[in-house]
Amino acid sequence: MERPEREAKTFCRLCGGHCGLSYSFDADGGIAKVQGDRSNPLTRGYACIKGLTLHEAHLSDRRLLWPLKRMPAGGFERITLEQAYDEIGERVRAIIAARGADAVGCFRGTQSYLNPLAYALQPALLAAIGSHSFYSTMTIDQSAKWVTARRIGMWGAGLDPYELSDVFLLVGANPLVSLATANMAVQNPVKSIKEAKAAGKTLIIIDPRRSQTAEFADLHVQPIPGEDATLLAGLLRHILASDWEDRDFVRQYVAGLEDLRAAVAPFTPDY
Fold first, then answer.
1. Mean pLDDT for the stretch of residues 199-227
2. What's the pTM?
3. What pairing do the DSSP bridges indicate for beta strands 76-78 and 68-70?
4. How many angstroms separate the Cα of 87 from the Cα of each of 67, 71, 80, 81, 101?
5. Alpha carbon distance 19, 188 (integer Å)
6. Cross-strand pairs, 203
7. Contact by Cβ (8 Å): 22, 36
């Protein structure tokens, strides 16, 4: 087998997993092979199809490689990077002079959250000009998530680490496919789950569908769609009826426990 001319280590920028990648280059400098980096201590050789084809976007003939300025007629004209910086800087200075620094804001969307450079550059830019106008998907179109979570109860200390759990219960989550499962390992999830089970941890999945993650579950509970609230209310009732709540914690931090006890009382095992 012919050895590559050069190899390089990098990481994928397309999600929060930041999986390690190993690139092999041929004699002409072209990418000959892409694979997961087995020396990466977190991902240990794992990378999904997005990371393994990341270079296709980099080399795509549709990739934008220079600034384009929108012209009065609506079309675009290619300009130099220096001209773009100068014109943008001039307009930003004029806005600040007329309306103050808070008139200049930044918006952070999904890919910006996951981009290592943009994640640091946006707040640094706002701090440099003295602006407090920072917006994101969580403040523009997903604020209900934060409001609702706090209205129904949220403990600010965070979640128990997956690695330290004896039992891990997931509701409607499929971390083998989606990285949106809070506190679940996103780097090499299949290997992480297999290792956790080999160490004696119990995995419980609540999901109407037999998902990819449910295939690994010690217990897969399939409620009728829409009845997840019923099932969770039953779990709460059983915890309270069995006196399993942490009474010291409740005494210090919880209000309205008796109201909760009354609300979940009808959700008996028979029901």
1. 93
2. 0.69
3. antiparallel
4. 12, 13, 11, 10, 18
5. 8
6. 168
7. yes
